[in-house]
């Protein structure tokens, strides 16, 4: 769905921090440190991201041989050709470039927040509605989100990458956002007590510090840094213009004198002395 190493790892690490922060609300979030960082981040998520990205590279570089099915000599080749019939015709490589401008940065942050909220809804819905993890609705919801979310993510990427041809956000993206918000409202309605359990003081301090750091970096990267670079460029241009004016001397026409320029001698200079 996301097709990006950086965003996938950010979501993976951020969700582990959310588990640390919300283990006082959901008991199944209480895990050992090695379960958080070794089993979840490195083994399950890390290996899954690696295999997924390699699969995307294979899909984007795959070639097609448009020969008839019955012209393929081997039975294995026929089966492979039939399987490839259901693979994508083309594949777009996503390059989110979150730090390129403020609009993309805010959009990427919004995508990460909605994605994390959708993952949290999985656990809160199971807890609130008393569904065991092996219930068929849990798996059905995840399969539904993979299919619908893939289309929504492509609409968001097209809207961000080329707003001239995609002036409005696609309806599938709005639908996924509405579903995620509706799931959160269900949790709030049926178990407000769980969600209103206050965060421990040190957890709230950590999230406040993280939010301040992100906000500070945003202001510096997209406001202060641009003002500083613009001031340096104006100052450099002024220095170059002053240097050009200082070199322009001599003829009064604004051109500087060089060794190849001939200066006319006054009359009588260098000639024979008069009798």
Mean pLDDT: 82
Structural Rg? 32 Å
Cα end-to-end separation? 103 Å
Write down the secondary-structure element order: HHHHHHHH
Structural class: mainly alpha
Number of strands: 0
Low-confidence stretches: 256-260
Percent of residues in helices:
55-70%
Number of domains: 2
Shape: extended
Protein name: Phosphatidylserine synthase
Membrane topology: Multi-pass membrane protein
Transmembrane segments: 105-124, 136-153, 173-190, 202-224
Pfam family, one: PSS
Describe this protein's structure.
This protein is an all-alpha fold and 275 residues long. It folds into 2 domains: 5-63 and 70-197, no CATH class; 201-239. Helices cover 66% and strands 0% of the residues. It has helices at residues 5-22, 33-61, 75-84, 102-128, 136-161, 171-190, 192-195, 201-247. Helix 1 crosses helix 4, helix 4 (102-128) crosses helix 6 and helix 5 packs across helix 6 (171-190). The radius of gyration is 32 Å and the shape is extended. The N and C termini lie far apart (103 Å). 7% of the residues are buried. The model is unreliable at 256-260 (pLDDT under 50).
List the helices and strands and how they pair.
Layout: H1 5-22, H2 33-61, H3 75-84, H4 102-128, H5 136-161, H6 171-190, H7 192-195, H8 201-247
Helix pairs in contact: 1-2, 1-4, 4-6, 5-6
Can you summarize this structure?
With 275 residues, the chain is mainly alpha-helical.
What attributes characterize this protein structure?
8 helices, about 280 residues, 2 domains, single chain, mainly alpha
